[in-house]
Amino acid sequence: MTSSRRDFLTCCAGIATSVSPWRADVFASHKPEPLGLDEQNALIRLDSNENAYGPSSKVLDAIRSATASSNRYSRLKYQDLVQHIAASHQTVADRVLLGCGSTEILRMVACAYLGEGKQLLHASPTFEAIEHYARAVNSAVLTVALTRSFAHDLERMLSAITSSTSLVYICNPNNPTASLTPREELQSFIAKIPQSILVVIDEAYHHYAGKSAMYSSFMDYAVQDDRVLITRTFSTVYGLAGLRLGYAVASPKVLQRMSVFRTEDSINAIVTQAAFAALNDAEGLGRSIEQNANDRQEFFNEAMARSLTPIDSHANFVMMDTFHTADEVIEHFRKNNILIGRCFPPMNTYIRVSLGLRAEMQEFWRIWDLLPYVKNGMHH
Question: What is the pTM of this model?
Fold first, then answer.
């Protein structure tokens, strides 16, 4: 969190206890106008943590160029891309495994390390794909609630480990809370767990978090410790969610065990070229990160003006307590052509909002101010 936003949150904290979070009058001086009819009839998608701006112009050029080879399998380019990704992380090619999105990586790791008599351990709430894959292979699943600061409760997770625990999943920054678990605490946790357990650290939102005393990537750690696997995706900061490409960095031994469950030819010809361009476009990457930081700050400004206090976000989405049933709020937005994230038990009064374009976010706040709780004056 920047110092300016931290100061703003602090000064507004006292207001939130005495003013209903549903008051819209504090922002009445500059309420956004409704979108035009054509836009209003289309769904605004603030539900899947996508990059609303899409790929950079250089990546778009690569995509257009790659369509000419869409009749060919991308096998000849596969290893070149693996080597390029490895070089970007100062490691070697046999420590990198590609997948059709990072979700395929999670499926492969579940198939390789879970099954009958084995147990997955992860937080609640968190990204649930690996839980679905775990249950598909008849694995036990154990969840541990986040702490009050929305970090992984590593002490409780450590105490929950049993002889059947074979896989621990940690999403950092976490989805859906966009919160961080400090690196030092994670390192201490990993050092204490049995050697037989693989720790998967999902860094899908890494670029949005920035580097700080609290956070840095575990890519370097994965090279040192054979029990750690890192996943990344091109879906978020690079704006390639629809083209599906993710990857893992881990020891060759771990990746070989996983690769037998890989879908053959799952990496398409277009995303292969797009990924090359994305990795080489430092300017486009920086612009995407900066845009997100500005949009995130603006979301907090709008929220605090309404006496709302969202969870501090280190991603391209924000989660906040509505003090009412989340399903009701979600349905209100759906009726007004805006999709936001689903309910995430046990946080049943919180909503997750992916950051969109300026006009989309203006419409989000306009619809927020139409919530019935504003009209009837209900307080939490």
Answer: 0.87
